[in-house]
Design a protein that fits this description.
The complex is a heterodimer. Chain A is an alpha/beta fold. Helix content of chain A is 40%, strand content 25%. Classes of the chains: A alpha/beta, B alpha/beta.
């Protein structure tokens, strides 16, 4: 896998923008879930987004991955606007931008063995069965999952194991961008740390660019170099982690910090 | 003085059609004094919610209490008749649930849901009960309480709904409040407010509280004592000051070390490897030994007995210094 971009040598955040959102707006009936949100993800960085329920953070994750359509605005992936693309045109980009959501149960087919679930992901990318098999075992080893679970169904796995499988599937297409929306919120404290450490190792070892979304400011600061603060659909503040922590500008950021210190 | 609630050797077994029976609680001992706030901390599957269910007589149908006692002022809570429960549940022991939305009746106005328990337990007249309901709403910092009393649950935010369940729990000045993950469903800012409110409400009435949570940090905020559960047993217990600064059990220490810092950390936070065992696949000896960095050969063979220390105790053969 050495030649593939995902597995190349460590890469540090460059200034090259890989994914850019411009003035995204999304309304649900009378509710504006996203108001004019613009942000850029630089190659090799983890961009953290923190927000409470109703902040629009999950809507943003779904808009960026084009699971739902924005009402207006642009999503530029390496310069191409993917916001207006048809599903068939979008397909190559789907493999480049992968996502992990909060609930691994909703993400895994309960009637499929883990092996099938992972194999299908490779198959969608046109990878042969033999190559997929070796890819799967390397991935699992990398993620610290014993290969014995391949022949089990999701119902027989713990939350942490399921979330690792979801991460494995996301990585199987060798994406350039990973969008993670509350990937640890449904997990136990000790397992949360395991998954956060896993994401940090993946970032460190493979230079994966990532948008990490959470309500938990601690988790966000643990992972991210830059942090954006979402409130009521607006990005109210965005900055380097140290400046958000030490010199927050927006009153809401200050309030969040104060309540996370306890 | 006798504690308000004294649980001794509580054992509960669960039945699962495919795997048979297994013990989810394996001898839980816990005492709560009058006016004391005790934290029961554990991860999912540790048995903390089953302990709470047993205290409220709400053990699910596929579970069976197979041993132990729960002495509450001379009565064993494990052997009460439904009519005896009616005098205790909601009156002497009250619950603050995790999910306020599921706990409230969506078709009843907030005020009626509070008066219901006042009328049933304290035999208040309708008008008096309504007046008290508004007072209670006011006491949990709900603004325009008289107006909100006429609202339905869906008209309230998550934080306000949790305030309502706290008002309901405190309506009859219970001796013991069981708070089962009362802030898990809430946002960070609301979470801090609700926890603070709960503590003040309980302390000002002189009630005792058992706070059930997965979050050690949260327990530290309001509890006097904390008990840590793992795989159906209490593995460590002690006053907050001791437990957080000098944990004895490697599991407690691991959980504390796994706390994320609020700041820049170049190093990875240390994690506890592996995961909690299910009751159906408990390892022999100390249930924590496969994940423990202090485990010796003896830990694989011997189930650690409770070792009382000055102010608390632990179940570990090789406790941390």
């Amino acid at each position: 896998m050495g030649r593939n971009r995902f597995w190349r040598a460590p890469l540090f955040a460059s200034m090259r923008v890989i994914l850019e959102a411009k003035a995204l707006t999304k309304r649900f009936g009378g509710l504006t879930a996203l108001r004019d949100v613009s942000l850029d993800l630089r190659e090799g960085e983890i961009l953290g987004l923190v927000g409470e329920s109703g902040s629009g953070k999950s809507t943003l994750a779904r808009v960026l991955t084009r699971l739902i359509e924005a009402d207006s605005g642009q999503i530029l992936f390496e310069g191409t606007d993917i916001a207006g693309l048809r599903e068939s045109q979008l397909r190559p980009f789907r493999r480049k931008i992968q996502f992990i959501f909060q609930d691994p149960d909703a993400a895994l087919n309960p009637r499929q063995k883990i092996r099938t679930t992972l194999w299908r992901a490779y198959q969608a990318g046109g990878v042969s069965r033999a190559k997929a098999e070796s890819g799967i075992s390397r991935l699992l080893e990398n993620l610290g999952v014993e290969s014995g679970i391949l022949d089990r169904y999701p119902a027989h796995l713990s939350g942490g194991q399921k979330q690792r499988i979801v991460i494995a599937r996301a990585l199987s297409t060798q994406p350039s961008v990973l969008i993670a929306d509350e990937p640890t919120a449904s997990l136990d404290a000790s397992i949360q740390v395991q998954v956060l450490n896993l994401l940090r190792r993946l970032h460190r070892d493979h230079g994966l660019s990532m948008i990490f979304i959470s309500h938990d400011l601690r988790a966000v600061t643990y992972l991210s170099g830059r942090i954006g603060v979402l409130r009521w659909g607006r990005l109210v503040e965005m900055g380097e982690r140290t400046s958000i922590l030490e010199n927050p500008q927006h009153p809401y950021t200050k309030e969040l910090l104060k309540n996370s210190r306890i | 003085m006798n504690p308000l609630l004294q649980i001794r050797g509580l054992e509960i077994r669960f039945r699962r059609p495919d795997c048979g029976r297994a013990a989810v609680l394996r001898g839980v001992d816990l005492a709560i004094g009058r006016g004391e706030i005790v934290g029961l901390v554990g991860e999912s599957g540790s048995g903390k919610s089953q302990t709470a269910a047993a205290i409220l007589g709400l053990t699910p149908a596929n579970a069976q209490v197979t041993g132990g006692s729960a002495d509450f002022e001379g009565r064993d809570l494990l052997h009460l008749s439904p009519s005896e429960w009616q005098q205790i549940r909601g009156r002497r022991i009250a619950l603050v649930p995790q999910e306020a939305f599921g706990a409230l009746n969506p078709c009843l106005r907030i005020g009626s849901q509070i008066s219901e328990s006042l009328q049933a337990h304290l035999k208040l007249e309708g008008r008096e009960a309504r007046r008290r309901s508004v007072e209670l709403l006011d006491s949990v910092a709900i603004e325009r309480a008289d107006e909100v009393a006429g609202w339905f649950p869906h008209q309230l935010s998550g934080g306000m709904r949790q305030r309502v369940t706290i008002a309901i729990a405190l309506a009859c000045n219970p001796d013991l409040v069981l708070a089962d993950e009362p802030t898990t469903a809430l946002d960070a800012i609301t979470r801090v407010q609700i926890l603070d409110l709960l503590e003040r409400a309980v302390r000002s009435r002189g009630s005792a509280m058992l706070l059930i949570t997965h979050d050690l940090t949260q327990a530290r905020q309001i509890c006097d004592r904390v008990a840590v559960m793992y795989a159906g047993q209490i593995v460590e217990e002690g006053p907050v000051a001791k437990l957080y600064s000098q944990p004895s059990h490697p599991y407690t220490r691991g959980l504390l070390r796994a706390n994320l810092p609020l700041g820049v950390s170049a190093e990875l936070v240390s994690e506890i490897p592996g995961r909690s065992p299910s009751p159906w696949e408990l390892p022999p000896g100390c249930a924590f030994h496969p994940r423990c960095d202090r485990a010796g050969v003896d830990c694989r063979e011997q189930v650690p007995a409770w070792a009382a220390t000055g102010s608390g105790g632990h179940r570990c053969l090789h406790p941390c210094e």
